[in-house]
Amino acid sequence: MSRERRKGGRAGKAVAITAVAVAVVGAGAAALGFDPRTLFDEAEAEANTETPATAEVVQQTLTETVEYTGDLGYGDVIGLDCLVNGTYTALPAAGDRIGRGDEIYAVDDRPVVLLYGSLPAYRSLTAGTEGADVEQFEKNLSELGYDGFTVDDEYTDATAGAVEEWQDDLGLEQTGSVDLGQVVYAPGKIRVDAVAVELGDAAGPGGALLDYTGLDKVVTVEVELDDQELVTVGDAVTVTLPDGTEATGTVTDSESLVGEETGQSGDTEEVTYLEVTVAADDPAVFDGLDQAAIDVGFAGDTAEDVLTVPVEALLGLAEGGYGLEIVSGDATEVVGVETGMFADGSVEVSGEGLEAGQSVVVPS
Hints:
The protein is α+β, with helices and mostly antiparallel strands. The chain folds into three domains: about 10-65 and about 305-360, Beta Barrel (conserved putative lor/sdh protein from methanococcus maripaludis s2 fold); about 65-75 and about 215-300, Beta Barrel (Elongation Factor Tu (Ef-tu), domain 3); about 80-215, PGBD-like superfamily/PGBD (Muramoyl-pentapeptide Carboxypeptidase, domain 1, Orthogonal Bundle), CATH 1.10.101.10. The chain contains four helices and 21 strands. The protein has helices at about 10-30, 35-50, 130-145, 155-170, and strands at about 55, 60-75, 80, 85-90, 95-100, 105, 110-115, 185, 190-195, 200-205, 210-215, 220-225, 235-240, 245-260, 270-280, 295-310, 315, 320-330, 330-345, 345-350, 360. A hairpin with a 5-residue loop joins strand 17 and strand 18 (about 320-330). It is elongated and about 95 Å long.
């Protein structure tokens, strides 16, 4: 995964390339025995009869974008251990998607079912049991369509009656109680990432069973610690797909980690960085992509209420620096300007007599 930091500001390079190209044309023409200045004079005379393309000097706020390249995946991988003794008689496959009420696996032909919640199952539930885990279970039972009980923190005889119906639908013995290991809780639907056992293997409490993730694809980015001020959970970012499509996203998690990096000398050194998770505001933008490299743009420095022009309006001056060709009626005048921030194809400019609303010449 790349931690390369990229930001705007390449207009100077483009101008330099243009100057070199003109010099090469002149030298080549001289070698052929004619004066290239006549061509430029004719081109200039023709150009002077045409109306130049222009853009407006705009007063606005520019925000620098700092880009990092991240990896598309399914986010954190979570391990699931078995909680019961027996033999594995049914297992999912990597890539399977499992929702509320669905069987995850089976031990001795007894299904273990996925329910939604943040509190792990840690005990058996039976009539008379009270607690937050009871309420969490009853919410799931209600969402699965079972009724006749009140969703609260008390496991009553009415709850037991609904559980018997649920157990009957699962093909289980109708005890009215929920044994530890019969249900597994996750925040929502899960995707099986890898399975560590095979059918017929012995099952037992604490044995590694499988790894799973959420369903939504996310981008994981390694951000240099020097740029940590760019990253706040909840911040808006831009994501750029391999085909150039841009979309909006949100920082959903940020964690400081320590890793190793090989320096230019070949020595390995310890580095601290931020592992940042970004979710697309519309998850569908990642449809059809798998393990792709995604560029993520974080909002950086801001220049408020500054005069700006398109980057291509800048002229490289012979004496150095930059200028703009200002349009005034039927005439134009080149004036020197100071440049500031580059962002989103625009550049901050300042100079004597420069005002918002003026027209500047841009390449047509």
